[in-house]
Amino acid sequence: GENVEQHPSTLSVQEGDSAVIKCTYSDSASNYFPWYKQELGKGPQLIIDIRSNVGEKKDQRIAVTLNKTAKHFSLHITETQPEDSAVYFCAAPTDSSNFGNEKLTFGTGTRLTIIP
Amino acid sequence: NAGVTQTPKFQVLKTGQSMTLQCAQDMNHEYMSWYRQDPGMGLRLIHYSVGAGITDQGEVPNGYNVSRSTTEDFPLRLLSAAPSQTSVYFCASSYSGGAGTGELFFGEGSRLTVL
After folding, report:
1. Which residue has better confidence, B33 or B98?
2. Under an 8 A CB cutoff, do B45 and A105 touch?
């Protein structure tokens, strides 16, 4: 099965600065890497994902990069805003043979705090 | 659409009591799952189902039972609650359509305390 490690566990950045969260995975056959954001008292919500056929994907202020050789992927948030404060989880398919990619192994989470 | 609905939101049990956490989705998703969230341990998969009548174990299934009699509902049963089951439980569903899918839709969680 997949093993996903996530760092750091907590991160504080000044509003307007950038934040980077990193994850490593163990199964070289994994091909789908989502990021979820969990606001206080809510369930996680998908914010961006990347598949193994690309190295980077952007969506406005957030981006994800993937290095398949090193088996790590990262979330980048630029021009951070107070509403970016949340817990962020990376994930990878638990079983690389899982065609639909729904069965996920999650990292342990990063609590991001934006300092006004 | 209501999405994924979990009940109850909060529950306190005594050791040895049983209860059922309810999960319902109205998106006609084939895949449903239960995760538990504990501090410093992220989200861990308890049980999952790829369709009505089909269930399987995840990473931490001990002490929990599930069933899937309809596409919409996926209840999680604790037969004899233990303090180690104190956690926040999340139900999640997804359209299981093969390559190109995979987004999980989560409920808002059920916070369970076992005394």
Report:
1. B33
2. yes
